[in-house]
Amino acid sequence: MIVSKNLKDSTSLYFRERLIFKYKMMPKSLDSIEAKHLYYGRNFMVDKVATDSDDFIKLADAFKAGEFEKCIQIAKKVYAQDPTNLDVILILLRSYDFLKDANNFSHHITQLRLLIDAIKASGDGKTEESAYVVNSVDDEYIFLNILNVGKDFTRKTKPLAEDIMDVWEKDNNKIYIKIIYLN
To answer: ∠ at Cα 48 (158, 143), nearest 5°?
Structure first.
């Protein structure tokens, strides 16, 4: 896959370390192709943080308990390891919002929008062929929330050769989302 190759090639404009630096320090300077490489490149990370990892569980527990300062401390550690993790970014956003930290909130909302725009650019979600493409079920639900797709939609899941297609339907409105699974 071209994204994987570009991220690993230190001479590429899309070299992961270069993109992560821009993403962390100057997210508004990234273009849509760079955002695509960051978002979909997460699939090729060996050290990404899973939602069942000890650090993520501690983060989720602190968030559920409303311990937002502790939450930010834990989230910063997880974010340092996996900065394009949408779950972590959302927890940071909600924590900074609760603590009224507008500067950090603004920075991370820019990052979230960048990654969400990469998903939006993957398709229009109107057909199976033009489905939105996400990295995980967690990302799918975050994306659906941003699209304001509520509980009144029903989901049908269809296995594909290497991926999963979810079709969200309400009345005659359908939204197609492909969840990619790379081994």
So the answer is: 45
